[in-house]
Design a protein that fits this description.
Helix content is about 40%, strand content about 15%. By secondary structure, the chain is α+β, with helices and mostly antiparallel strands. The protein has 2 domains: about 110 residues, Class II aldolase/adducin N-terminal domain (L-fuculose-1-phosphate Aldolase, 3-Layer(aba) Sandwich); about 160 residues, 3-Layer(aba) Sandwich (L-fuculose-1-phosphate Aldolase). Bound molecules: Dihydroxyacetone and zinc ion (ZN). Zinc ion binds next to loops.
Length: about 270
């Protein structure tokens, strides 16, 4: 059996959480990540028959039955993951009936997965329908994006178009736009269901006055989506209250789409 501390999936979680902390996206215990793992990869490092604990789910995760995930822990600080992955991360497997999951590694100090596990699992179910290669759900609290949700209309089309206009590459990176939810209590099934409904046809969902969910086939894709949205929000907050003299027009957005061969969300460009 290989040393799990050297497993690429553990190392990548360590690197990513450290990066996100460094960017100021994950103060205190803010943020969480889950990444779907292939069984042969996990089983090269862990005995699949050695279950440490079994915990229940109060929704039906059966579309993910048998799937392994590496996830960050509830109450854990991203700042600390790299120094002690075995307490701050865990590998879980969804039980065949989808009503419970097993911990196979990690959370050694008695911890458990992120409080946002319902949202993560519901998002995985929806994204897998849209993209069978989907793997990563990432949540964090980037400063400028949060600020923007206080001063900008939360209408999805308006929010998306403002982001698209802030940096030329935005429409190329997220042509489907962003989903936006109004303020809600976090950590429960209701916000999980509302997020999952939006994540079906957006890879990004914003929670007003809270943060963002980014998804992708790889850690880089989820991270890159969040990074791009946050940069656009930073431009928006930086130019706030200054007289704007020019911006990117819908005609220009349309020519970007043509140049890069992408289709923007239907009905968003008024040309
Ligand atoms: O894990 O970010 O939304 C802490 C959070 C909850
Ligand atoms: Zn959060």
């Amino acid at each position: 059996m290989n040393n799990i501390f050297e497993a690429p999936f553990v190392r990548e979680m360590c690197e990513t959480t450290a990066n996100m902390y460094r960017l100021g996206w994950d103060e205190r215990n803010g943020g969480n990540i889950s990444c779907r793992l292939d069984a042969p990869m996990v089983e090269a490092y862990l005995d699949p028959g050695r279950v440490l604990r079994t915990l229940t789910l109060d929704f039906d995760a059966s579309p993910l039955a048998g799937q392994y995930f590496i996830v960050t822990g509830t109450g854990k600080y991203f700042k600390n993951v790299k120094h002690c992955p075995q307490d701050n991360l865990g590998v879980i497997r969804i039980r065949p009936d989808g009503r419970a999951y097993e911990i196979l590694w990690g959370f050694e100090d008695g911890g458990r997965p992120t409080s946002e596990l319902p949202t993560h699992l519901m998002n995985h179910v929806q994204r897998l329908k849209a993209d069978p290669k989907h793997r990563v759900v990432m949540h964090c609290h980037p400063l400028n994006l949060l600020a923007m949700t206080f001063v900008h209309d939360l209408d999805e089309k308006k929010f998306t178009k403002t982001l698209w206009r802030m940096c030329t590459e935005c429409i190329v990176v997220f042509p489907e736009g962003v989903g936006v939810l109004p303020w809600m209590v976090c950590g429960n099934d209701a916000i999980g269901e509302a997020t999952a409904q939006k994540i079906r046809d957006h890879r990004i969902v914003i929670w007003a006055a809270h943060g963002i969910f980014g998804t992708g086939e790889t850690m880089d894709e989820a991270f890159g989506l969040i990074e791009t949205v946050e940069k656009a929000a930073q431009v928006y907050m930086t130019i706030g209250r200054m007289p704007v003299r020019q911006s990117i027009t819908d005609v220009q957005l349309r020519s970007l789409c043509q140049a890069f061969g992408i289709r923007p969300r239907a009905g968003y460009l008024d040309v």
